[in-house]
Amino acid sequence: MSNSALMQRDLKVLWHPCTQMKDHETLPLIPIRRGEGVWLEDFDGKRYIDAISSWWVNLFGHANPRINAAVKAQLDTLEHVLLAGFSHEPAIRLTEQLVQLTPAGLERCFFADNGSSAVEVALKMSFHYWRNRGRSKKTRFITLTNSYHGETLATLAVGDVALYKETYEPLLMKAITVPSPDCFLREEGESWADHSRKMFAHMERALAENADEVCAVIVEPLVQCAGNMRMFHPLYLELLRDACDRYGVHLIADEIAVGFGRTGTLFACEQAGISPDFMCLSKGLTGGYLPLSLTLTHELIYQAFYDDYEKLTAFLHSHSYTGNPLGCAAALATLEIFASDNVIERNRTTARQMGEAVTHLEQHPHVAEVRQTGMILAIEMIQDKASRTPYPWQERRGLRVYRHALEKGALLRPLGNVIYFMPPYVIEEEQIRQLALIATEGIELATRTD
Ligand SMILES: *Cc1c(COP(=O)(O)O)cnc(C)c1O
Description:
Blueprint: H1 3-13, E1 32-36, E2 39-42, E3 47-50, H2 53-56, H3 65-75, H4 89-101, E4 108-112, H5 115-132, E5 140-144, H6 153-157, H7 162-165, E6 176-178, H8 192-210, E7 214-219, E8 223-224, E9 230-231, H9 235-247, E10 250-254, E11 278-281, E12 293-297, H10 299-303, H11 325-341, H12 343-358, E13 367-373, E14 376-381, H13 397-408, E15 410-411, E16 418-421, H14 429-446
Parallel strand pairs: 3-15, 5-6, 5-7, 7-10, 10-11
Antiparallel strand pairs: 1-2, 2-3, 4-12, 8-9, 11-12, 13-14, 14-16
Helix pairs in contact: 3-11, 4-11, 8-9, 12-14, 13-14
Bound molecules: pyridoxal-5'-phosphate.
């Protein structure tokens, strides 16, 4: 079986996510036969470094022997059981551990099976909490420009990436959108902290004006990943936590992409020393193995739903595969690796190597910025550096880097004109150097005037 034979069969029956399918008339679709560590191997035997952790989910490499063993063992014991009226040990052990690991006060765990659903759970729970407390006028949510919280209708409504949202706008509830602290937009010479503090004035105003109607503010702590890996200072989260308390509004931290060590700490909220009212987890939760997600919250919120059945205050939400035991087993093995391997410490070295490998790109005439938060490193290409004029999106410069990287054996899927590394934590220095070389060549090719 070859790449091209499989590609032909695929294109007859599949409809791929986030894809204009017509692109595949010219862009190869790559069927993967196997994975090992940072490597993916296609059906022609070609290997690619998975520089983006297969959409930010993989933490400890493909076919990780320890996670494999845990999933296999679970498979022979219990593959699945409903979580209503029933329970199982992997779900209990996993949530016990997460209550210990997450910021103080997050003591109740509600399972779903993907990131968007975890966000939907947080939105519904926040609204429902206020309703149960007699505050039914609270129906709205505050979000940041350029944010991303998933692609179901409610999560699109609280997101702000035009590419995903604009088309579906007529179907969406209206969120209150506040300018993001995105530090790419700071003035020259301004520090991340100063910019983030300055931008907080917009949030303060939105809260002051709308608190009576607002259930919660939802935020991606430190990095707006799908929004082109734009970053901000932890100070913003500190100010936000304080303001949410002052105005009686919940804070939802969507750590779906940034959780589990991506930003340099196990959870991004730790860098601001805050605890949100809701924390959404998915992606790295299972080490990139299986769809599973969790929404964690406070005991106080749980108690607002806890009453006699006839009061009809129970939270109403369920998915068929809620708390799947195989997913929980993968998540437990993932946490076990964090506990035994000093991962966060080792990542500090890896993150430094990533940064050092691309510092030369800061001088590139078509690189506006190289920015990094922990294990996320982004390189933003630009048409005109002095005036900060972006390339017209129709030119698809990022796609040129993608094509070059595939040729050279790396999966570097860009976000628009932003090339980024968000690799599995097991990546080695030699592989980082290889990625940096491929990215540099790709950016050179992609930014040539033509
Ligand atoms: C990926 C992502 C989601 C959505 O998760 P899915 O599992 O793709 O539905 C939500 N929020 C953030 C910040 C994400 O990066």
